[in-house]
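INTERNAL AUDIT FORM
Audit reference: QA-55
Scope: verify that the stored structure record matches its stored sequence.
Auditor: D.O.
Record contents follow.
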Amino acid sequence: MKKSLHLLALLIVFVSCKEPAHDKSDIETTKQIQSRTKEVQQVAEFKGQQVTGVTVSTTGRIFVNFPRWRKGVENSVVEITKDNQKIAYPNEEWNSWEIGTAVEDQKFVGVQSVVAFENMLYVLDTRSPLFGAVLDAPRLFVFNLIDNKLEKTYILQKGSYYPNSYINDLRVDKKNNKIYCTDSGRAGLIVLDMTSGKSSRVLDNHFSTKAEQSYLTFDNKKWVNTINSDGIALDTKNELLYYHALTGYSLYSVPTKVLANGATKEVEKSVKLVAKTGASDGMILDHNGTLYFADLENNKIMYRKKDGSIHTLVEGKKIRWADTFSIYNNYLYFTNSRINEVTPDISNMTFTLNKIALDTN
């Protein structure tokens, strides 16, 4: 009897020392997450300079931008060279404007987004430093990437923006000869004709462009802010424009043909709720029709396949408010703008540009 009890005690000790049982799928998921996290590669870092936008041209040139949300912004637009130099683009003069001085036609005031399309770089200037009222009309500066000279300036017309607008991001629709922009300050989309330069406003204060709430939650703490239509992505194959309010969880789409040619009511009738997602900032589609976006509150980058299924690409501490995306050479480039973490003094904070390899399928 004593021997049997002794063997039973040993068995109990052995079982208690074993690893707790896991479902096989849980283990595989954990391994996949760990391996994906390791794939995140840092491209550049910026101390005391809060980066938001990134774009990579067809030839591999990398551009980033720094909005003038506070004093002390060194440059609005920077090119990161192959030897990791950070060069003011197109030159220092364009980047020399300072808060409190008069605005000038050929100086950046408050750059929120940069988008390389074909051989051009589109620089979106909110003309709204410190999130204040626009100092003059928001505009798009278009630079020729062959000679780095200003090719054209699109100035938004009155009626397409408001004094409290904050024009956030853009996509170029060559097929319809239009540029689409989101307004996160005053909910709505802007349609800009590339030939005439005329701009119009659609989905103004529409439920699909409005913020759904006034805060996001990070580690059980509220980050209080109301941000309307923000992320935008263009599906040229299916002729759809996707957009998403930042403080919200709904992804919407509208046909580009309707946007380009339709009246206000026609556009509103064509809006479709595509999916419920995490709160996201920037978005981008790859050539397969896969849509990439962030889940800000959970430090994730997600993707939505054409079949509608949503998956996690990467998550963890290397994802710190994945702000803007660009795809080049089968890598997804993204900025960590750490918006929910910033304080009035960011001089000791580091913000990064990173990339992660995508599937080749």
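Auditor finding: record pair retrieved intact. The chain has four helices and 26 strands.
Action required: none
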